[in-house]
Amino acid sequence: MELPQGKFHSSANSSKGPARKIESEDEKTEAATMRLKKSELFLLGMLVVVSAGCNKADTQKMQQDAKATGEAAQKTAADAAEATKKAVNDATDKTKAATSDAVDATKQKYDEAAAKTKQATSDAVDQTKKAAKKAADKAKQAAKDAANKVNQ
């Protein structure tokens, strides 16, 4: 029975229930390793059965072929594990970069808001000073006018 591209696997006794979805990369690697071990055992069993009726040269050729097949399967599993590891590292690096960019953008917006607030506060203080000076000037003028009226 062929399993569909490592997306599902069933328990040891497939009659116990339906296949379940593999949740993590470790489970995918474990499933691939189990398939590899099963195929190696199958090849070894076939080698024993076939070698019983073959001459020595045929037996040696089958042993070499089985060994080459096992090595190729191991290399494929190692390559798949390395590709998975690289994909995870790439995703991690991209997430770190995005987080750093977001922090920088937030800091920049904060700095811009602080500068605008500082400018607005400064403008308000200047206007208050002008209004206070104008009111003081009016008060002085009113005091002078009052003093002039009293002196006349």
Describe this structure in words.
The chain is mainly alpha-helical. Helices cover 81% and strands 3% of the residues. Helix 1 (25-51) packs antiparallel against helix 2. The longest helix has 96 residues, at 56-151.
What's the end-to-end separation, in Å?
A: 121 Å
Outline the biggest β-sheet.
Answer: 2 strands, antiparallel
Bulk shape: rod-shaped
Radius of gyration: 42 Å
Structural category is mainly alpha
**Number of individual domains:** 1
Query: Tally of extended strands?
Result: 2
- The helical percent reads over 70%
Strand content: under 5%
User: What average pLDDT do the residues reach?
Assistant: 78
Q: How many DSSP helices?
A: 2
Q: Which sequence of strands runs across the widest sheet?
A: 1-2
The SSE string, one letter per element, is EEHH
The stretches of 5 or more residues where confidence is low (pLDDT under 50) are 1-17
Topology of this structure?
Blueprint: E1 8-9, E2 20-21, H1 25-51, H2 56-151
Antiparallel strand pairs: 1-2
Helix pairs in contact: 1-2
Defining traits:
rod-shaped, mainly alpha, two-stranded antiparallel ribbon, 152 residues, disordered N terminus, single chain
